[in-house]
Amino acid sequence: MTRRRRLTLAAAVLASLGGGACGDVDAILELELALPSDPDRVAVVQARREPVGFDDAWDASGIVAFPLDAPSETNLSIVSDGDYEQALLVRVRYCTSAACDALGDERAPESRLIVERAFYLGERTSARWAIPSVPTESAPAAETLSRCDVRGCRDGVAASYCRTDGTHFCE
Amino acid sequence: MTMRAGSLVCALVLVFAASAGAQPRVWPGPRAEPTEAALADARASFVRGTELASEGRWADALEAFERAYARSGVPAALFNVATTLRSLGRYVEARDAFDQLLEGAPDDADEELRAEATRLRSEVAARVALVILGGVPRDPSAVLWLDGVRLSLDETRPVTRDVDPGPHSLRLELDAHAPWLWEGTIEDGARVTLEATLEALPETRRRRPGLWITVSLVVAAGLATGAYFAFFHDRGLQPASEAVIRL
Q1: Residues of B with CB under 8 A from a CB of A
Q2: Which of A30, A67, B100, B235 has the fewest CB atoms within 10 Å around its CB?
Q3: pTM of the model
Q4: What is the pLDDT of residues A81-111, one digit of tens each?
Q5: Residue A168 domain-assigned (yes or no)
Q6: ipTM, 2 decimals?
């Protein structure tokens, strides 16, 4: 099959799937990542929901890699389709390959973040995680981000994104 | 000109003469001065590669040597990449690696290493075969595959490619034509000239209005459905970033 024919058929299939391909997602956390510099490494980011723990084996799915040529601010969208109340676990491994599968990457240093609650059905939330330097440990203690620090459902500056009764504005 | 410089020039001339129709492969070294940790990792990879090579595990050894070079930029690591490729019978890549070594190594590099690289480069280059393919139209719809890998075609005709000796296949596709196929075994250092012949498909096979009507209807229906969902049904959430993780 020639390129033109493949492109035509691909366009047809994509168009026919238009409703589904452009469909909604249920909840998104826009995570702003401030990453340190280490030109010899790449930041390999993964996320999971509890009850998965940091000490469990995470398969290689859902990997996003960022070069660390210089200290940088980067954005990552984490999309959830259920289990919104479960805590979100994010880890950044500092590997020598983008797939984090090179020799020695199994002992790569790591940064860990727990977001107490990141997702609300139909809402876009956001949070910032600043990592000042590449850690030395491969299994460090996790930083925790409170549900009230997760921005969303309220415009402008807020001291907290929770009401006085502790519920989030997105709830 | 010294003998060493002469050898290097000869090697470079051979590069341009023999790297037919495709960019030579390049092995990346470190982007900056390697750190102590990077050098330690490179040393470990080099030692590991040597062990694997002694066990005949060439593919694994190649990976280790490539890593050692990527982390350190040390010529000896690239030399081992080249010799490992030679042991794997991947002579085109071995030649490219030797060329990179000879071109990039500083003048004060190990004289013995350079001499051995020059000798082996000549040996593997002599084993690289050349395929010369005529009959490839300068048509944007022309697609040429070599051993299942699509080749990037420029305007140069005939199309030429360096190949390792052994069995190979070629397939040329062109709109409204039956594909041209070739399979055969190419000997060491051979120069194989082929002529692709493309036969136009009969008019009835070329024009298939039913197919295009069907495709058009499917496209129209898909677009209408997409537009409905996009503008009337729900303006759902979409990730704001290009980097997305889906749980």
Answers
A1: 30-32, 34-35, 37-38, 41, 44-45, 48, 64, 67, 71, 141, 143, 173-175, 215, 218-223, 225-230, 234, 236-241, 243-247
A2: B235
A3: 0.48
A4: 888 999 999 999 999 998 898 888 888 999 9
A5: no
A6: 0.82
